[in-house]
Amino acid sequence: LHFSGVTNGASLLIVAAHNRNGILQFYEELMRINNDQVNALRAAIKDQTTRALAQDQRDTGIYDELSRLNNELGTLQRELAKQNVELERLNQQKNQFLGMAAHDLRSPLSVIIAYSDFLSQDIAPILNAEQKEFLDIIRSSSQFMRGLIEDLLDVSAIEAGQLALNLQPTDLASLVRHNVTLNRVLASQQQRQVTCACADDIPILVVD
Q1: How would DSSP label each residue in 139-154?
Q2: 191 phi/psi in degrees, rounded to 5
Q3: Quick one: CA torsion of 92, 95, 97, 98, rounded to 10 degrees?
Q4: Ramachandran quadrant class, 131 (left: phi over 0; alpha: psi -120 to 50; beta: rest)
Q5: For residue 125, what are the contacts with CB-CB under 8 A and spacing of at least 6?
Q6: Which tens digit of pLDDT belongs to each residue from 110-128?
């Protein structure tokens, strides 16, 4: 037999073969296995490096896309802030317009109401019942319109957070009867009849 051996630290590997060629074949096989392992390790390192580079490229692409989206979001937020400022400015102008229009309309209505009161007091003796009713409707309708204008002013006060309720004891049945009377003439012109039926036990309520 032919013997050969190698040491690995404190370990000893001894190989025996029938001839010297067998020993050489054994060493050649070890070299082949070692070369295969080295080549496999190189291939694994190369594959790992390729994957790492590809992942880095994907991460870079994701980062760039996130940066782009973040920039777009910042632009949209700035645009939204500008639009909110513009809307607030337009809303203030709208409130100013409502206030001006309401004040301008309230003055002529006050004149109409004043003249209606004057006519009711000074020429009432020469008016018949129907004419007196018409004059009362003119005065009450003008007062109603002035109330609507006051409501427009209340809208501005509500948006400014300065609304003060004007609470007063109110007879709801009388309020309904009054409005029915106001609309009865208008309804009759369209061949319609408006009537009112209210219960007798409706309480006085404190309302605006």
Answers
A1: HHHHHHHHHHHHHHHH
A2: 55, 45
A3: 170
A4: alpha
A5: none
A6: 778 877 877 777 777 777 8
